[in-house]
């Protein structure tokens, strides 16, 4: 089975469509969504509708912090641009779509894997995995051999040996990485809708459960069109401008 890992779409229709198309071309048998379907982008209704449909067909999906903020209302710690986007997004979704986002689980365990937006040790707290310390803490909080997280908009891969030795590296797009089960692995596919690693191309990853390999991918898309839609919607210009640089 090939499992496509898709996260942090952030209401970016063009990037989401590009990733779905490439996942299909690469033979994905199933999809796993790691949260943050909404926030920042101009097409929240369309994105949520697509995710709802795909979940009804068997896709895995978990809740992100932006999904929770849209479903429940923005929290005080959000920065101003994110708060404005959340408030705007709440007005774009139907009650059923808001209920869908609010009902998503924080975690999902299936196929010997853990799927979570932020981390395994405190999923509702939304702590970021920014380095080895957080990665180790997350891997030690689960018995799953493979953990897949979103939240951090930069691709990364960590592994923990049976002796507690941790290592990490930045994956090369298109290169399959062996992820054998005698170690624990934590993968961050990067963001579909708002990359922040200096590369504007959308990011996703494919986990091959038969071969136990993980391949990270980047997909160019029309980020100019996406940015124009964000500005036309009256959302903060910075949310569109940053798509050009991937920052």
TrEMBL record:
GO terms for cellular component: cytoplasm. Belongs to the metallophosphoesterase superfamily. YfcE family. Residues 1-208 form the Calcineurin-like phosphoesterase domain. SUPFAM superfamilies: Metallo-dependent phosphatases. It comes from Sphaerotilus montanus. This is Diadenosine tetraphosphatase ApaH/serine/threonine PP2A family protein phosphatase. It comes from the Bacteria. One of its GO terms (molecular function) is phosphatase activity. Pfam families: Metallophos_2.
């Amino acid at each position: 089975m090939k499992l496509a890992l898709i996260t942090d779409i952030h209401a970016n229709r063009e990037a989401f469509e590009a990733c779905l198309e490439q996942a299909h071309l690469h033979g994905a048998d199933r999809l796993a969504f790691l949260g943050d379907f909404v926030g920042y982008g101009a097409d929240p209704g369309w994105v949520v509708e697509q995710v709802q449909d795909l979940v009804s067909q068997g896709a895995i999906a978990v809740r992100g912090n932006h999904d929770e903020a849209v479903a429940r209302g923005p929290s005080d710690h959000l920065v101003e641009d994110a708060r404005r986007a959340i408030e705007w997004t709440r007005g774009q979704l139907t009650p059923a779509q808001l209920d869908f986002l609010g009902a998503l689980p924080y975690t999902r365990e299936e196929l010997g894997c853990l799927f979570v937006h932020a981390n395994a040790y405190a999923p509702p707290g939304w702590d970021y995995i920014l380095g080895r310390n957080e990665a180790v803490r997350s891997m030690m909080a689960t018995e799953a051999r493979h953990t897949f997280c979103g939240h951090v908009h930069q691709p990364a891969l960590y592994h923990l040996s049976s002796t507690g030795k941790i290592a990490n590296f930045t994956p090369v797009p298109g290169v399959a990485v062996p992820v054998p089960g005698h170690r624990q692995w934590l993968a961050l596919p990067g963001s579909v809708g708002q990359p922040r690693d200096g590369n504007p191309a959308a990011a996703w990853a494919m986990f091959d459960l038969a071969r136990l390999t993980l391949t990270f991918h980047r997909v160019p898309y029309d980020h100019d069109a996406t940015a124009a839609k964000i500005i036309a919607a009256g959302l903060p210009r910075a949310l569109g401008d940053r798509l050009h640089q991937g920052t």
